[in-house]
Every structure is written in structure tokens, then in C-alpha cells.
Design brief:
With about 120 residues, this protein is mainly alpha-helical. Helices cover about 80% and strands about 0% of the residues. The chain is built from 5 helices and no strands. α3 runs antiparallel to α4 (about 65-90). The chain is elongated, with a radius of gyration of 14 Å.
Length: about 120
């Protein structure tokens, strides 16, 4: 079980670091998706910081289980909120947010299972 937790956690952290990097450099497709959802471009840095912090927390959580559980919970809530914001803007392209949400939920469930 712990090996599955490690794999999912590292994958989730890597995906969130990548997503944060896209936010930091204002990657065009991300900017377009955020504009469709009504998210101001000025928020991109803050959203990237939240994703990067979640990824760091996941990695720290390998050795500090409560930190990992908190980070996975935070990322889960972050991506639920992202999906709600997209839906409220009538933007139904939820594939990326769903992918990130499922990774975060997987990391959370596996972290809780290994406690």
C-alpha cells in the first residue's frame, strides 16, 4: 500500500509543480482557460503558489503524514473550487481539473490508508 501511496503522491506533486509553472509563466492555454472561467490573469501567480505549496506539502508528507494529508486535502478542495468556478461560468471543459482532482483525492485516500 505504501508503494502505491508513494507513486500517486509523487505523480500528484509533479503534476501540480508543472501546473504551477504554467501559471507562473502565463502559459497561453492556461490563460485562455482561466479567462473563459472569468478568473483574472492577475490571480495566476497566487494560484500557482497554492499549487506549488500543495505539491511541496505532498512531498513533505512522505515523512510527515499529517502534512501530507493536509496538503492532499487542500489540493482536493482547490480543484473542487476550480470546477465550481468553471461551471458557474458555463465553461464545461473540466478535463484538466478533473484529472488534478482525482490525483489529489487518490493521494489523500492512500495517505489516510497508510496512517
Amino acid at each position: 500500500m505504501f508503494v502505491a501511496y508513494l507513486i500517486v503522491t509523487v505523480l500528484t506533486a509533479a503534476a501540480n509543480f508543472f501546473s504551477a509553472g504554467c501559471d507562473f509563466v502565463r502559459y497561453k492555454q492556461v490563460s485562455i482557460a482561466m479567462a473563459k472561467a472569468g478568473v483574472p490573469e492577475s490571480w495566476m501567480t497566487a494560484l500557482g503558489i497554492l499549487k506549488a505549496a500543495g505539491a511541496l506539502g505532498l512531498l513533505a508528507g512522505i515523512g510527515l503524514p499529517l502534512i501530507g494529508a493536509a496538503a492532499a486535502c487542500g489540493l482536493t478542495l482547490f480543484f473542487i473550487a476550480a470546477m465550481i468556478i468553471h461551471l458557474r461560468a458555463h465553461d464545461y471543459s473540466l478535463g484538466p481539473a478533473t484529472f488534478f482532482l482525482l490525483l489529489a483525492v487518490g493521494a489523500l485516500m492512500l495517505r489516510l490508508a497508510t496512517l
